[in-house]
Amino acid sequence: MTTFAELHIRPDILQGLAALGFTTPTPIQEEAIPVILRRQDDLISLAQTGTGKTAAFGIPLIQITDVASDQTQALILCPTRELCMQVARDLTAIGKFVRGLKVLPVYGGARIDLQIKALRQGMHIIVATPGRLLDLLKRRCVRIAGVTTVVLDEADEMLNMGFQEELNAILAETPATKKTLLFSATMPRAVVTITRKYMTVPVELTVGTRNAGADNIQHAYYMVHAKDRYAALKRLVDFNPDFYGIIFCRTRLDTQEVAEKLMQDGYRAEALHGDLSQIQRDRIMNKFRRKQVDILVATDVAARGLDVSDLTHVINYSLPDELSGYTHRSGRTGRAGKAGTSIAIIHMREKYRIRELERNLGKTFTYRRVPSGQEVCAKLLQQRIDTMLNLEVDHALLGPMLPALVEKLADLKRDELIKRFISLNFDRFLQYYKNAPDLNEREVERHAAPPSGRPKEGSRGKRDFRDENFTRFAINLGKKDGILPARLIAIINEGTRVRNIAIGKIVISEHNTLLDADSRYAPAILKAFDRLMIHGKPVKIEMVQASKPQPAPKVGRRYVATPRPTVAPKKYKKKAAAD
Predict the structure, then answer these.
(1) Strand 463-465 and strand 551-555: pairing?
(2) Which domains does the chain have, with CATH numbers?
C-alpha cells in the first residue's frame, strides 16, 4: 500500500496530513499528485465527490508554492460559496505546519472590502467563486497574471450553474503558460468543450466509470402515488432511526413546504434554498454539521458544494432533470469509502427514468416496498430497546430509590409492565401508524414507458372530445438543449402534481419549443418551469395564445390532445345509380 511519503511529499505537509488522520492516499490522490508535482501537463480528473479530490490537488499545490514570494501562484475556482470555504479550510489544515502559507477564500455574500484588504497582503493560493472573482478583477483588486496553476473544481457544476462567460473572462486574465487542472464528477459536452479550449494534450485520470456513481452507495427506489409522497418520506425516515441525510426537492417552494411539515411533525429538520441569506445558510449548515439537525431539505443549487461526513441517506423527493444532478446528489453520501444509500421516491410514470439512470450510470436500482405502519413501529421499538440495553445505569444514584419503585410496580405483571412502557414512550408513533394504509403503487412489475404524447403503438387511440380550451406555451430551449416530449411531460407531471392534464401538440425546433396544454392549468404549468435549469441554461416559458378544444385519444389515465388536420379531406361525389 502506497504512503504519502512514497509520493515524495515534504515532511511539513506530512505532519499536517497526520494531524488530520490521513496516512495513505486514495486512488485519485495516488494518481493525481505525481502528475501535478511534475508541473508539465494539464490534467483532467474524473472522480466522484467524497473520493478525496480536494487533497489530490491541494497537497501538490501547497508543495510547489513558493511561500517566500507574495505573488498569487494558484487559483482554485469553485461553483458555490460553501465549496469555496470548504476547500480553503482543507488547504489551510493540510498546510498547517507550512510556515508563511497564505490561503484566502473569495466568495459572494461576504464583505468585499475585507476580502480586498486581505488580497493586498499577498495571497499564495486564492479559492474563489467565479462571480466574486470577476467582480474583483473588474475593480483591479486582484492579480492573477502570474498564476502557474488554475484548478477548476466541480467543473460540471460550474457550467450547469451558467458560469461559462465568467470562466472565459477569468481564464483570459491568466497566462498561457499556466497548467490547468480540471476535476469533475461527470463529463457532459460543456466540460469537453472547455477542456478543448483551455487545455493542451491533458493527462486524463478516471477513478471508476465515467458519469457513474460511487460503488459503495446502494441505489433504491420506492413507487407511490404522488399524493402519498410525503407520507412515504416519513415512513422511510422513521424506518431508519439513525437517519442523517439530505432530502432533495426540485423547487424552493417544495423544499420549504417539506421542511415545515417535518418540523411540525417533530423532526429535527431545516430547509436550505436560494432565498436564504448567507448568515442563515451558515447557521443551518453549522447545526447540520454538529448534528443538531438530522434532516436537511435542499434544492440542487443550494446543496452544491456541501461537504458533510457520515451522511447515511440521500432521498430524491423528486428526481433531478439531468443525469449529472443525480450523480451529484447521490455523491453526498457514501463519502471517504463509507457506505451510503441513495433513495428515489417515484410514481409509476417515472419508472422509465429509473431505467435510464441504470443504463447511464451502470448501476442497479433495487425496488423496495414502503414499509407498513406495523413494520415501522417494530423497527423503532427494536432500536429503542437496543439503546436501553446498552445504557450505562448509575446504580449509586438509583439505588436508594429502587425499593420504593419496586413496591410501586409490584402488582404489575411483566407483560403489562412492557405494554405500559411501550405506550408511554411510543404512543405518538403507535397512534399515527394505527390502521396505516399501504402506500405502494400497484402494478409495480409493469415497465412504464416514458409518456410520449402519443397512443401506444398498435392501439387505435379511441377519440373523444374534451370541453376545455388549450393554451400555447413558448419555451426558450429546443433540440440543441436536449428537450424531448417525455422530459416536458415529466416536468409538468412533477411540477403541477396533477396526473391528467391534457397535453396537445408539441413542436420542438432547434432552439425553442411550442407546447399546447389545458388552459385551466396554465398558472400551474408556468410555476412548474419557474427557475428551472436544463444543461446550465435557465428555462423561460410564456403563454402565447389560447386555442379551441381539440379531439384527444385516450392513453391510460392521460388524454393527449391531437391537433385538427390543416388540410381538408377530399370530397367524393356519390356514384349515380344505374338506370
Answers:
(1) antiparallel
(2) 5-206 (3.40.50.300), 217-370 (3.40.50.300), 374-433 (no CATH), 463-559 (3.30.70.330)
